[in-house]
Amino acid sequence: MVVGAEEACLLTAAEAREWRYRGEGSMNLVMAYIGDKEGLQGKVLRLRKAPIDSDESFKCASIEESYAFLQRQQFSKLDGSCLPRGLLVLVSRDFLASVKSSCHGLRPAHRLTRDLDLTARSGWLLPDLVSVPKELLVGSKVFLGIEIKPKCGTLPDRKLLSSATAIKAQVSRYRMMQYEKLRTGKITSISSYDPLDLFSGDLLRMQTAVRNMMQDPQNVFRVWVCSGPSSAIRHLGSEEELREVLGSPGLSRSWESEEDFCRLFAKVVQHSKVLVRIRELQALDALDIENIYHMHRCLANPDEYSEADARSSAPAKLPPVGDWDRLIEEYLIAHSAKDCSVIFTLTMIDKQEHDSSSIMSSAKSHGFELVDESESCAVLYRFGVAQIDLDIKLRTKIPEYMSQDSRILEGYLEHNADKC
Asked: Which CATH class is domain 2-127?
């Protein structure tokens, strides 16, 4: 069966038992394949969610629309080698119902307001960025899969903002949002993680960022351990579990120290240069939502809100109206990049393995790179931009983004009035 230009299979209820819950974002649920079909091994399936409460305001592009958006926009702006393309597969309603049932009791409580969309026709089949090829799982070797959600690593230009919102040019959006999440009960403490540290390129600041993510992961840091096939991949839910794995025989003893691990992982992230590429996408938000909102409002309802209205209400001097469509589109692409995740798969190899041409040849054929760590060992890693929540952002949600921006700012100012 064909979906678009890609060949795809139809997944039915009988095959649902071959898929295991891996994780989810706000809009999508991810299942990992654990069966023996060669074409599906090492794959995950991304499935769209829908609100359980039909009254919830829910504006979300379909899987098909998100897939088309990624091919059209993101691949032209982000190196396709780190952004798996995948393909669409048809899914039956019975398959989705069986998957939904198999996930019962495995999903985090804060995600239960949305469930699988049983009316969806397609799922998105993608490489499992955590899965490790069998030929690399030699002896007691352990691989770690680390997902980071770096968030926004840019600040708006002060000239684009009003005097009342100028603080946005100094404090990262993630740091501001912490106070809104605290007020609404989504978190119980303020994280020290700052995306500006991670995106800085400075190794010491990046190490600090990794340490802060580990200490208070929220939704920006997750770790899996892989010592076998997909069915053996285990999510580590606490710092204690991570410490235990870092001290296992399958990893170098230099990883036993949490601080050593933070330094090493920061070095891997720096070496990959993936955050440089993501930041370039985020920088497409050239005008900030405070100005984009007024441009969108004018284009969407020109009879009710004129160009003159937009220009008089926006805090910055707006460009020619002929550029507005393009700038709004670039803002939405940037907004999408601020939600993306990156998954790294890494392990330590000793000098003997490093010198083994067969091991290194196999590793490189599967996309792994080498980061020298010491005379006795090195880090073998690969990475990919995950697409759990890398979705098309709809123009119709721009008023919602503006309201959210205002709430985030208000929450921050309420707790930090003396700093502004």
From this structure: alpha beta
